[in-house]
Design a protein that fits this description.
The chain is an all-alpha fold. The protein has one domain (17-126). Helices cover 68% and strands 0% of the residues. It is elongated. The termini are far apart.
Length: 127
């Protein structure tokens, strides 16, 4: 009379490595999770992108702190300071957004594209 429930197939389970790497950039907390949870913690590709995503977040936080300090300094320069700050920070944040999208694209295409300093660190930690 009743039907037996279907059991999920165990064909490796989980996400594909490129999707896991992309999600590590999109939701950076997942990058930390991927370093702990198997099978992602054993996959060099996922580990590389997880470390690079974490390094990028740390660099963005440092850049944000530096931009606040520089904005405070620039506020004391009449006319030039506020104009400079109004033009510079949107361009910087747009560049960061573009880099973030680019890294997600590279991860999705199974490429290990390295950022200049952060990428070297990520490669050492992943390997």
């Amino acid at each position: 009379m009743g039907t037996t429930p279907q059991t999920p197939s165990s064909s490796g389970g989980g996400l594909q490595p490129n999707i896991a790497a992309l999600l590590g950039y999109l939701i950076w907390i997942l990058a930390i999770v991927w370093l702990v949870v198997e099978p992602y913690s054993k996959n060099r590709f996922v580990r590389f992108h997880a470390f690079q995503a974490i390094g990028l977040v740390v660099a963005i936080i440092a850049l944000n702190i530096g931009s606040v300090i520089l904005s405070i300094i620039l506020a004391f320069i009449p006319y030039i300071g506020p104009i400079f700050a109004m033009l510079l920070w949107p361009v910087v944040w747009l560049a960061i957004f573009g880099l973030w999208i680019f890294l997600m694209y590279k991860a999705y295409n199974n490429e290990m594209w390295k950022l200049p300093v952060i990428g070297d660190f990520a490669e050492k930690q992943a390997g």
